[in-house]
Amino acid sequence: MSMTDIAPAPSRLRYIWNATLRAFNTNKTSWVGLVIFVIVVFLAIFAPIVTPLDPLEQNILQKLKPPSAEYIMGTDGFGRDIASRLTHGARISLIIGLASTVLAMVIGSAIGMLAGWKGGRTDILIMQAMDVLLAFPSLILGLIIVAMLGPSMMNIIIAIAMTSIPPFARIARAPTIAMKEREFVDACRALGFSDMRIVAGHILPNILPEILVMGSLWLANAIRTEASLAFIGLSVKPPTPTWGGMIREGFENILDSAWLVIAPSAAILIVIFALNLLGDGLRDAIDPKLKGES
Q1: Helix spans in 72-134 (H)
Q2: What are the pLDDT digits (tens) for 244-283?
Q3: Which residues contact 207 (CB under 8 A, 6 or more apart)?
Q4: SS3 breakdown of the chain: % helix, strand, coil, rounded to 5?
Q5: pTM of the prediction?
Q6: Which helix (H) or strand (E) holds 155?
Q7: 3-class DSSP assignment, residue 44
């Protein structure tokens, strides 16, 4: 047995990269999702340049103005520019979504790999705990955690991450169980490698693509959950703009000023749609059987 059998991770990652490019070129909609998401990230980063009006500045004389040349998306009930609040709100949604997804990915994957590697009673106890968390709908569990901790950006990130840990634990556990029976793991053990070195250095790189695919798909769920919590008043405190908060604020005038709700709702829809397209392309690259290839 050669050393390449013991450390297959680099070639595996190169294969995934090439397969991803092939899958994206085959499934053109994946590029659409990637481009849309990059544009949203660009608008969020350069929000002060793209929409120079202050998203917090109130002008009661300009309240509930319809879309015009001056206010391309209109103004809200306090005379604040909807476009500025939308781009600045994208920062909040993306920061919370990305941070909570990465946190859940790290913790959930570690828990899943621990369960899969140890097996036996440890595996049973860990997965039963994950099943208990899965018994709660993600929005309800997030609502309970935020209500206990209080509405703030950090608490929102923790709450959404807690709801996302079980899926990542499940997605990491199954391939870990399969990987630990492979010959290169036996070779690593024969060479005296520690469990930590085997799991972190050899198993993790092989299952990382599946985890990243799950992350791209779960990011959309995190953004949706944050918007839902903001809609019921359990996100970052006003007047900080959030997409869910903008929908809640505009709901009172939805019949007379529909643009208050249409703009943030469309933003949430577009981002979730783009992430799902992107996730589909990554999934096709990881497992070609899902798109009918053998």
Answers
A1: 82-118, 120-134
A2: 989 988 888 888 888 899 999 999 999 999 998 888 777 7
A3: 109, 113, 172, 175, 176, 179
A4: 75, 0, 20
A5: 0.83
A6: helix 153-179
A7: helix
